Amino acid sequence: MPGKSFIAQLRTRPDKRDEFVALQTELKTLVFAHEPDALVYELFQSEENPDLFQVVATFRDEAAFEAHMSIDFHDRLVPPILDCLAQEMSIAFYRSLP
User: Residue 21: which residues within 8 A CB-CB, separation 6 or more?
Assistant: First the structure.
């Protein structure tokens, strides 16, 4: 069964950048502690623009992604993460190939 991945681009407001990083770091820590089918969950910051970030995530399958989307800490952390953004995030979904 193919994995499910996404790449999200997020641009923060400069005054909310540190809060965003702290929230995303907490989310990443919880994902790895409580979601064994989350194979990758990484946050990257642009070297040219410190307010530009990419989140790259890969889940074992669609069920693992759905579990991620409904887990309690996701519901707690994502709204304040989104409040840190200067604009709506862009997100693209991918499937793993053999």
Answer: 43, 45
CA distance 11 to 71: 24
pLDDT of 1 above 80: no
14-56: pLDDT as tens digits: 999 999 999 999 999 999 999 999 999 999 999 999 999 999 9
Q: How far apart are CA 20 and CA 5, in angstroms?
A: 21
pTM of full prediction above 0.90: yes
What tokens appear for 50 in the block? Answer: 């410190």
Q: Quick check: 23 and 81 in contact, CB under 8 A?
A: yes
The full length of the chain comes to: 98
Buried b (16+ CB within 10 A) or exposed e, 30-67: bbeeebeebeebebeeeeeeebbbebebbbbeeebbeb
Contacts of 58 (CB under 8 A, 6+ apart): 3, 4, 5, 38, 39, 40, 96
